[in-house]
Amino acid sequence: MNNFCAIIPVYNHPQHLVELVEYFQRLNIFVIMVDDGSCAETAHVIDDIWQQKQNEMTCIRHPYNQGKGAAIKTGIKEAQKLGFSHAIQIDADGQHAWQDVPEFIKVSEQYPERIIIGYPVYDESVDKKKVLCTLFNTCLGLDK
Q: For the segment 22-47, what is each residue's pLDDT rounded down to a tens digit?
């Protein structure tokens, strides 16, 4: 059986953090929050959450913003250190569909050796040029 944790990279997005941590708590999934050099307001929100939920989560802080990729790597290293076999990475900004997490878990349990990756669903309001540039830069490794 897989042993899941959630990795939440955070950079100045405090609005959904309490709800997100509580969501994973209801699923009995341990949270690894990586504060990637956030502002004082966000750091304060993270501190408040951590003080209340120390048994259900941990928090690692980068002293300055190193980028989402670095925050995810930090979270994965912590997950390995804590003995988790699988990690669910979800952004703190509320753009990911949290309700899909149980489906990701189900698929991962069917195929435990595979990496399960979601894909964004965009509506008409999205800036298509920005999406294509991000995709292009990611594919070429220019987003580091």
A: 999 999 999 999 999 999 999 999 99
Angle at 110 between CA 106 and CA 116, to 5 degrees: 70
CB 131 within 8 Å of CB 95: no
Q: What is the pLDDT of residues 60-94, one digit of tens each?
A: 999 999 999 999 999 999 999 999 999 999 999 88
Whether residue 31 contacts residue 5, with contact meaning beta carbons closer than 8 Å, is answered with yes
| Dihedrals phi, psi of 121, to nearest 5 degrees | -115, 115
Superfamily of domain 4-119, CATH level 4 = Spore Coat Polysaccharide Biosynthesis Protein SpsA; Chain A (3.90.550.10)
pTM (2 d.p.) = 0.84
